[in-house]
Amino acid sequence: MEPFRGFRDLICSIPGIATVTADVSVAEIGDDMSRFPTAGHLASWAGTVPGSNESAGKVKSSRTRPGNPYLQGALGTAAMSCGQHPGTYLNAKYRRIAIRRGPQKANVAVQHAILIAIWHMGTNGIFYEDPGSDYFTRLNPQQARTRAIRQLESLGYTVTLAGAS
């Protein structure tokens, strides 16, 4: 792994990825991201994108395609780790999806996000910058406020909003 130490250190900056997971990722992907034109190509090769088997408007299957089993195992472990450690963007993504679609689909979505980050880091040579666990709240604060009000109202409270002073 000595020739790939720099790339491995880049990958280890992603929350949830330890040195063993980074070693497996480097061994399976390599450090040359030019073979994948886009991040989507890498995710598709690894088998972390949903399938789109549709005919005549009927969805026949949305299972992920078969990909690299060693990389999927390592990324699955990293995604589970992200799902259990709060305070990061990947944990917030896992929780949002797990509530609606279940923990297995959330795990694959986090694997996909990790691979996208690996591709960008390998292409640009920069360390991972975590957007933070409040990323989705900052992205759409009106939606977060509406959701909080609805949750309180469903518990039987009357909510009146006043501006902060």
Kindly report the average pLDDT value.
Answer: 87
| Helix content percent band | 55-70%
Which strand order does the major sheet show?
A: 1-2
| Class based on secondary structure composition and strand pairing | mainly alpha
Radius of gyration based on Cα positions? 19 Å
Poorly predicted segments = none
Distance between the amino and carboxyl termini:
56 Å
Residue share in β-strands = under 5%
Order of helices and strands: HHHEEHHHHH
When the domains are counted, the total is 2
Taking the sheet with the most strands, its summary is:
2 strands, antiparallel
Number of distinct helices = 8
SSE layout:
Blueprint: H1 5-11, H2 19-29, H3 39-46, E1 53-55, E2 58-61, H4 69-84, H5 89-101, H6 103-124, H7 135-139, H8 141-154
Antiparallel strand pairs: 1-2
Helix pairs in contact: 1-2, 2-4, 3-6, 4-5, 4-6, 5-6
